[in-house]
């Protein structure tokens, strides 16, 4: 079924969105707003429950498998160039400048309609020059030219895009069959989003159960990043964190659909200087308190039940989740469209005609499909096409502290972190960690446990916590995170290193047809996985992307090959 894509630069109360939704069919509605009203001002109950916080950036709201709303917060002239979509219908507010006309034309499909109320006739001239055939609403001549004297007053414009410039060739509808390799957070999220879009998915996992590698920890932390300059990692974490929270609510909620708690996260300052940095970042962006606020030393001390002299950031909607439980919930949501092939290791990919054949160690065929998504974390280097990706494995040891031990750990009501983290108890265990080691030792070791406990003693000072270094039994888990040099994930088409020549732009990077990856999630897989899966599926389906173009480029797996060749040229 074809999708109607609407771009509205004057979302207002959402009446046009409601009207478009009432027409039925698949709808992708992109709305730009300088600021979002509070959720209480939204009439529609379903939309109100999913309404984003008023923070900058792109907010993808998936209401159901048929209706997606993108709320883009920012100035129109700044947001428009960051949109990657093919638009059927435009609604323009009076504040759209004539200079935006060419950007609108780049987004328009042939025959796209446009409706606007302009401050004067300058927009009519600009739209006409960009390839739109304009008329004044109510004018007898349906194709009046921009030279018509009737344009002298503030016009209501109706236009059709009939540009003569060559447009990108319409991409064919994909064959909705895919193989996903890896059943951790990355692979489970990809399978869930693909199945929701109607794909048949074969999920290959070398273990007997999902989430046995880096996603197998008892507790993962979800929280955003903040910075005064709102850099790329900050913007990505904000979009991903809030998208994950919305998607988890759609599933039934943290602690209901899967194990965890949105109990809050307190990120303590290290010292006075760091406290000033944290406060400056909050003051710069004036975030809603539900997103991030300052907890002074008195409040922070009361929260953790121990003295802390500096205070810190409080993320009220943050918390912890058990990744394995989340993976199982996502895979259960796939239903009959998902085929699990577990306890089977994929080691070889071979392109035959229009399919990828996935084979095991003995050369036997495991599965085949036109599309393959490599989401196997530390195991990705076993696949020949991915061996040149500059990914590093980082050993992480988490310490498990039983609450019924003679020397009990701190029992906290929320997650607390400062160069390490400690969780509230779950199933009788408090988790503290985790180390960042540059070795491949899979065994628990006392030195890593002592490192975790030393950091814990700095977060929660006092004799009882300090004593854990001598009394706590060696217990925990070792996992291997995978990180890129820039600490951003890789989401998109896999670059073809052997066939790369001279490169100037990302668009010049050759790709393996139908081969994609979701890798490099490091320690942020919980919040990155849902949005990265949504980004990849949007790319596969040729539908509007859920992130601004600058972020999409920053996540492109071809970015490292491009940098390598630019340095060499």
TrEMBL record:
A biological process term (GO) from this entry: methylation
Keywords: Cytoplasm, FAD, Flavoprotein, Methyltransferase, Multifunctional enzyme, Oxidoreductase, S-adenosyl-L-methionine, Transferase, tRNA processing
Gene Ontology MF terms in the entry: tRNA (5-methylaminomethyl-2-thiouridylate)(34)-methyltransferase activity
Gene: mnmC
Record protein name field: FAD-dependent 5-carboxymethylaminomethyl-2-thiouridine(34) oxidoreductase MnmC
Source organism superkingdom: Bacteria
All copies of domain FAD dependent oxidoreductase, residue ranges: 178-537
UniProt keyword NADP present: no
Organism: Duganella margarita
Ranges that cross the membrane: none
């Amino acid at each position: 079924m074809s999708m109607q894509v609407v771009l509205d630069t004057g979302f207002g109360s959402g009446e046009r969105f409601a009207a478009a939704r009432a027409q039925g069919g698949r709808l992708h509605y992109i709305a730009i707003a300088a600021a979002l009203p509070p959720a209480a001002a939204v009439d529609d109950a379903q939309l109100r429950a999913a309404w984003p916080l008023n923070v900058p950036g792109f907010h993808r709201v998936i209401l159901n498998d048929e209706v997606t709303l993108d709320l883009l917060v920012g100035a129109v002239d700044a947001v428009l160039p960051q949109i990657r979509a093919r638009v059927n219908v435009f609604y323009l507010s009076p504040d759209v400048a004539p200079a935006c006309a060419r950007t609108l034309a780049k987004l328009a499909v042939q025959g796209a309609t446009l409706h606007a109320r302009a401050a004067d006739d300058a927009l009519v001239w600009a739209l006409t020059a960009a390839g739109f055939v304009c008329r004044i609403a109510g004018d007898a001549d349906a194709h009046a030219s921009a030279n018509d004297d009737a344009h002298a007053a503030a016009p209501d414009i109706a236009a059709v895009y009939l540009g003569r410039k060559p447009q990108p060739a319409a991409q064919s509808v994909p064959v909705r069959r895919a193989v996903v390799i890896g059943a951790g957070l990355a692979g489970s999220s990809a399978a869930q989003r693909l199945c929701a879009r109607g794909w048949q998915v074969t999920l290959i996992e070398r273990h007997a159960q999902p989430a046995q590698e880096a996603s197998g920890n008892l507790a993962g932390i979800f929280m955003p990043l903040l910075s005064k300059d709102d850099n790329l990692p900050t913007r990505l974490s904000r979009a991903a964190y809030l998208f994950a929270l919305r998607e988890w609510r759609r599933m039934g909620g943290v602690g209901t659909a899967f194990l965890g708690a949105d109990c809050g996260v307190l990120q303590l300052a290290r010292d006075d200087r760091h406290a000033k940095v944290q406060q400056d970042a909050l003051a710069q962006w004036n975030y809603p308190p539900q997103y991030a606020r300052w907890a002074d030393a008195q409040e922070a001390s009361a929260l953790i039940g121990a003295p802390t002299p500096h205070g810190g950031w409080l993320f009220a909607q943050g918390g912890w989740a058990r990744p394995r439980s989340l993976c199982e919930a996502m895979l259960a949501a796939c239903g009959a469209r998902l085929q699990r092939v577990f306890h089977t290791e994929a080691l070889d990919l071979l392109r035959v005609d229009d399919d990828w054949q996935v084979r095991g160690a003995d050369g036997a065929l495991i599965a085949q499909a036109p599309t393959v998504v490599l989401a196997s974390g530390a195991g990705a280097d076993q696949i020949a096409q991915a061996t040149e990706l500059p990914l590093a494995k980082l050993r992480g040891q988490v310490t498990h502290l039983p609450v019924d031990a003679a020397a009990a750990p701190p029992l906290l009501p929320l997650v607390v972190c400062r160069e390490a983290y400690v969780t509230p108890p779950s199933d009788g265990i408090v988790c503290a960690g985790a180390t960042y080691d540059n070795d491949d030792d899979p065994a628990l070791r006392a030195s890593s446990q002592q490192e975790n406990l030393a950091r814990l003693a700095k977060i929660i000072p006092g004799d009882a916590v300090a004593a854990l270094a001598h009394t706590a039994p060696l217990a925990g888990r070792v996992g291997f995170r995978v990180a890129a040099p820039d600490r951003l994930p890789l989401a998109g088409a896999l670059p073809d290193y052997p066939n790369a020549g001279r490169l100037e732009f990302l668009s010049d990077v050759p790709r393996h047809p139908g081969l994609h990856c979701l890798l490099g999630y490091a320690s942020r897989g919980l919040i990155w996985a849902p949005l990265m899966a949504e980004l990849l599926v949007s790319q596969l389906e040729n539908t509007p992307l859920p992130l601004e173009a600058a972020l999409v480029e920053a996540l492109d797996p071809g970015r490292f090959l491009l940098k390598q060749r630019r340095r060499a040229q």
